Amino acid sequence: MSSLEILKASFKGDIVTQTDAGYEAAIARWAINAVRRAKVVAFVKDESDVAAAIKYAQAEKLPIAVKSGGHSASGTSSQTDGLVIDLSRYLAGARVDPEKKLGYVGGGAIWETVDKEVIKHGLASVGGTVNHVSTFANTCSSETLDQ
After folding, report:
1. Residue 134 carries which DSSP code?
2. Is residue 62 a contact partner of residue 37, using CB atoms and an 8 Å limit?
3. Sheet strands side by side (includes 83-86)
4. Where are the alpha helices (DSSP H) in the chain?
5. What is the pTM assigned to this prediction?
């Protein structure tokens, strides 16, 4: 059994490789110059998926990139011939505790998701004005959330 098959057997999220139908969408980025042809894209569901993906990358000696919203024009959310840990599919939620006036944002969330959630509670977010940009680089801390 290959190390990729071992990863897939315990992985809760989705693993996409260059031979999969969804590969081109998985490596697409906001800026075309930031697209890198990753060997594997791991759409993680939780911290155990992240740990498994990192162990796989270490065993295979693959460089790692983390994708939140995929808005990095410099390409830091991509990795040629490496592993991309993608937070955008399953860890892109946001919730608000209206009594404490606190928001909890998943690592793959974009500002649009946050804005829509805080508005429901008569609150406003403090962030960028372009709501299709990831919140990941703009937050000091985030709580992993299921969408």
Report:
1. B
2. no
3. 14-17, 40-43, 83-86, 64-67
4. 3-10, 23-27, 47-60, 111-119
5. 0.84
Beta strands in the chain (DSSP E): 14-17, 40-43, 64-67, 83-86, 94-97, 102-105
CA atoms 36, 40, 46, 52: torsion sign: negative
Lookup: tokens for 104: 């909890």
CA 16/CA 114 separation, integer angstroms: 27
Among residues 69, 49, 77, 142, the alpha carbon closest in space to that of 112 is found at: 69
N-terminal to C-terminal alpha carbon distance within the chain: 32
Tens digit of each residue's pLDDT (9 = 90 or more) over 51-95: 999 999 999 999 999 999 887 878 889 999 999 999 999 999 999
Tell me the two tokens of residue 100: 């404490």
Chain mean pLDDT for the chain: 87
Coil, strand or helix at 135: coil
At which residue do the structure tokens 């139908």 appear?
A: 21
